[in-house]
Amino acid sequence: MLFPKLVFNRVKTGMSKKNLLKNRGLIRRKHAENYLVITLLSFAASVSLTRLFLQLTGYPKIGNGELHIAHVLWGGLILFATCLLILICANRWVYLLGSLFTGIGVGLFIDEVGKFITQNNDYFYPIAAPIIYSFFLLTVLLFIILKKMDKREANARKLLYYILDDLEEVLDHDLSLEEKESLLNRLDLVMKKSPHEDLYKLAESLKKFISSEHTYLVEEDVHLWETLFNRCKKFEDKFITKTKFKSILIFCLMALGIWMVFSPVVIISMLNNPGEFSRMLSGLMENHIVRSPMGLTWFQAKIGFEGSLGVMLIISSILLLIRKDRYGIILAYMGLIVSLTVADLIVFYFNQFSTIIIAIIQFIVLMFTARYRNRFLKF
Description:
17 helices
């Protein structure tokens, strides 16, 4: 009953319950979006590599005639161990490790979703792949929300949360001169913004402590990723001109568009050969991919989405070729985002996990498009 007592004590001293609850508002963890990126990457790798391993090894079973230790159990075990690690340990590096193993654990867990939603425990149930992909997209949406939250101006309370988190560098004797200056600047900002005397005094005391000559400092470490990023940027600035970048982007959009149009064109051409078209439909039904008239409707939707979005990418590459860059980039963005968020959900149902490859290619081309826009067009 600690919370009611705390409320009572605060009310006695003049602080209302409303203000108390306001000061307990959630604070987004510093670098939360980075941890989520690691989770997303390890989640995608976990599902992809698990499916690849099982297919290459003929879907082996761990256990005897009666028992089968499914990898969903390993996923749950990894998730539980990760939760314990985060609950027990206070070191910041634990969050990096936790984000990695969270992705691995949830990937192993959700990979067997087909068994959870079918009465006959059908691991290969077609709807399983779209469910896994939609779960991944929802996590990406959470990442986008976190990135937008990061751009909001921080108040004094939020700044102090982050400052106290960064004091781990002092405890571990890992504080650099640049980090010290950053802490001091943020403490000055807290002292300017703080509406409460207690927060002002806390920031003042911390500033006095960090400014002390006794504060242990180390040389700034250049992280591997930062080094690689700087080298790539120098290489890009030196060798990848606008003309070269544009040529690469046009080729990628054109090639991807033709690839997406190819399958619908082949299927539509079968309409002139009823026997061949009938054999294709029979194959879909025998593999239980098309199970009803509604399944056939979704198959038609897949053909329509792939064809129309492929045409959009081809048109966007032509617009770039004739120097209509703004319209070309906007059209490419629309086509790639709809492909990744809507069309691929349907494609995953019919093509299953082979769609991962084309989804990765679409994402890479989307990143190329975003980089071209940010570097050369500025809109």
